[in-house]
Amino acid sequence: MSCGFFMRKKGCVYMMEDTIKFIDEKTNGFKPEIGIILGSGLGELADEYCEIAISYNEIPHFIKSTVAGHKGRLVFAEINGKKVVMMQGRNHFYEGHSMQEITYPVKVMKKLGVKTLILTNAAGAVNKTFVPADLMLITDHINNMGSNPLIGANDSDLGERFPDMTEIYKHKLIKLAKKCAKKLDMDVREGVYLANSGPSYETPAEIHFARTIGADAVGMSTVPEAIVANYCSMDVLGISCISNAASSPGGEKLSHEEVIETTNKAREKFKKLVLSVIKSL
Ligand code: HPA
User: Fold this and answer.
1) What pTM does this model have?
2) Beta strands 135-144 and 189-196, pairing class
């Protein structure tokens, strides 16, 4: 999928044309202005607000989701007066897909007209003051995945070869989300999200390292999508749902079930915040 040289770049253009044509036909030319990528256990928003749904399996050049609890469909809806496209379930690097493949839907959203992308995930707490079911607004990230989705020939129609990364998570959106949270009488945290490739959770030593280098939360997603969205000049808001205390010496064992269980507990709060942000955008 990566466009290594001109001929392949041309191929990529055709791929995108295929995808957009298919989606346009299915949605009757729906033009979303807001995109949301819903993380583990947070997909309910797409069930509640679903006007048109297309399974990733049907969409040309999309990859299927293989993780239990991830649905794998693109959902279109008008929410609080705004046209929104939601990814209910995302593909992960740890499933064996390339960085370019997992971020293809972000480029598709850009082509569909999305200007603001809300990235959500479940994350482990690295910051010792965070507790499960807290919501954290992502202020910045650390890419510890060992790769970058922009590796390969650059498509200058989409963005620059060496994109600036000074303010991926837009201050104006963080401010807006904090205002929404305050109106809802909801506490939100702020912090730096560190992404590892996964699929194994971190060792206590790796969490100590993450804390030492300035991370507040840790996960296995979001960063590739944020890099591509920033590259394509989209405004990004990131929200982590803290699903567990990250591993510590002698601490409790961590399971995917626990992550899903906690995000389920936090999802009402999460939904309220996202709905309020959509309304205020
Ligand atoms: N580590 C990595 N990814 C995660 C975690 C964690 O503790 N919790 C949810 N996703």
Assistant:
1) 0.93
2) parallel
Q: What separation in Å is there between the alpha carbon of 199 and the centre of ligand 1?
A: 9
Of 261, 1, 5, 273, give the one whose Cα is nearest residue 154: 5
For residue 202 and ligand 1, the question of a CB distance below 6 A is answered with: yes
Each residue's pLDDT expressed in tens, for the chain with a length of 281 residues: 444 444 455 567 789 999 999 999 999 999 999 999 998 778 889 999 999 999 999 999 998 755 554 579 999 999 999 999 999 989 999 999 999 999 999 999 999 999 999 999 999 999 999 999 999 999 999 999 999 999 999 999 999 999 999 999 999 999 999 999 999 999 999 999 999 999 999 999 999 999 999 999 999 999 999 999 999 999 999 999 999 988 788 888 888 888 888 888 888 999 999 999 999 99
Distances (CA, A) of 151 to 3, 5, 162: 9, 12, 10
Q: Whose CA is nearest to atom 7 of ligand 1?
A: 124
